[in-house]
Amino acid sequence: MRMIRIFHMRAGCRIKRWILCLFFLTAALPATGWTETGNRVFLDAQNRKVLIPDEPSRVAVVNEVDLDAMLALGLRPYGVTMGRGQNRPTRYLGNRTDGMEILGAFFRPNLEILVAGQPDLILAGGIPKPVLVKQLNTIAPTAITYNLGEDWKTAFSRLAVLFNARDQYAAFMEDYDRRVKKVRQQLEKTGVKTVSIVRWNPKGPAFMQNNAFASLVLKDLGLGRPLHQNEPGIGHSHILSLENLHLIDAQVIFLGTLAGKGEAVRELEQAMVSPAFQALDAVKTNQVYQVDGSLWTSLGGPLAAHLIIDAVEQHLLGIKTEEWNP
User: Residue 72 and residue 232: Cα distance in Å, rounded?
Assistant: First the structure.
């Protein structure tokens, strides 16, 4: 009897240890219900090992950079969040987002909608809240494709690795570099050296900082910023009053609002006829160009970079071409 009792005690301990090990192993993997077969490990931007499908078929994205980059690689997510300050996917992508399911507001996906959509992969580049990432990861494997502050090229290359699309990435970047070189050479003949990128908000204007997305694209083209805008950062300056409107001045001003209509648009229209605005050097030389603020004053990816070059060619080189399309 003592031998049987000891056996049962040892067997019970082994079973408890096995159940405990199984619990921790399961908790360490994304809550997908999948086996190892058909999956691989992806090292994301935060050095997290994420178990993802070999060939994801239902991808949800919660920011415009991942959406842009997927489209540039010839891929389409099934669902997207709305663009920054907009009630639709970021408008610079036009009809490329037609048919995609709306998953919530910018950086604020609706978890119930996500669950119902049954994604097999969520792309959450730049998400500032770790708690949200944990929540998303209970729905499907969630990859942080870039960290806030990383440039679009780094984010694009990491996404190409995730989707096994290195060849498409290389071809795209070769085309971009070739185009940048050509336009840069043409711009050198114009004498334009300094540009200002301005987002007009309902409470006034702000200029984009040196490491903001559009600033980096213009830097590739050899265009710099005026000294009074020598401000590091990936966002924009504080809101300027009309008394400080001279701080948005440069040889050329690219000016836009996040939304295509609304209070910011009305405020901009009123400001453009004010004496302070009319006194700007760029206004006097007719070098102020209204552009899409969702493209120029927000985050962007490879498609956005080409669209900015389109605008530069049109406004500064007088080259009116069909919108670039990969």
Answer: 28
3-state secondary structure 269-299: HHHCCCHHHHCCHHHHCCCEEECCHHHHCCC
What are the boundaries of each domain within the chain? Answer: 39-164, 179-317
**206: number of CA atoms within 13 Å, CB side?**
22
| Spatial contact of 169 and 73, defined as CB atoms under 8 Å apart | yes
Cα 232 from Cα 257, distance rounded (Å): 22
Domain 179-317 fold is: Rossmann fold (3.40.50)
Task: Confirm whether 39-164 and 179-317 share one CATH topology.
Answer: yes
Q: Classify residue 48 by its DSSP letter.
A: -
- pLDDT for residue 230: 86
pTM: 0.84
**Region for residue 259 given its phi and psi (left: phi exceeds 0; alpha: psi -120 to 50; beta: otherwise):** beta
Is residue 267 within 8 Å of 274, Cβ to Cβ?
A: no
Q: Would you state the structure tokens that stand for residue 67, as one six-digit string?
A: 């959406």
CA distance 205 to 237: 9
Homologous superfamily in CATH for domain 39-164: Nitrogenase molybdenum iron protein domain (3.40.50.1980)
Nearest residue to 249 via CA among 207, 203, 220 = 207
pLDDT tens-place string over residues 8-41: 444 444 434 433 333 333 333 333 334 456 899 9
